[in-house]
């Protein structure tokens, strides 16, 4: 019998401030299998990230700022309001969400200044959202003391409604909406053509597996956009930054998946993991193509695409420091989902062996690998 779908609560990043916590491993935006760069404290980038990676992140931030300055109609949005509401979806527990909110606040203030809007007495409200199991206590321990906004937590899945109707002026989400609400049921059904036996993802899987993931993502995006359309004010903006699907099977993301699968296979041979346990484990993750995202927006019909921008990052240079960093970030993001299915005992040996395999491989030095790519999608509510 296939195991039940991975519970949504297991998708939260590692809480607390321990060695493997996300708060201590968030200088790269949650790796979440495919995302290798991020904000560092006060906007700096750790040594492990290259200057080109920092440039890619700066490009994304610049693009979002440009969208606010050019596309946000502050006169209309604020004519009957004394506050501006921001919501960050999938905030996790690292400091990244505060940098995002700070940047948005600064951009809105600049736009008001350009439009001659007096913001004396004007206030900003930031809602930080993630699943109820997210370590919000740790998140708020990192809250800047000099923040120019009010802040509150909103626990719950962003695949459904979170806020009152027409109450949010700007939504933001970074590296979150590639996570599915659940593993596609067909890939865990032994009687289905899409049963994903012996694999944890759709890499090198039959087309039926890929199609099951694609359909689940389309359903999730329909629900996501439906909820945001209800919650966003007319002419409000939504900025979504996410990894997009590689165009070939030779890429860093797929290579990491295959190495992790090989560790599980070794554990089956050693008797520490059963075949049935592996067969019933699949990762609830899907990187869409830009065409799939555009199609989802078109089907909903309540948003217009103001901008789509693609960012490519070069493959990392091979070094033990970078390998260690990648494993730490992956563990911070993935330990929960693995532990929920296999239990606590597997975690230490799994990631130790995984690190050995990454070190032994040419994964970080193969220049023939397709660069990892992200996309910033800026939408306006009609």
From TrEMBL:
It comes from the Eukaryota. The lineage of its organism: Eukaryota, Viridiplantae, Streptophyta, Embryophyta, Tracheophyta. This is Uncharacterized protein.
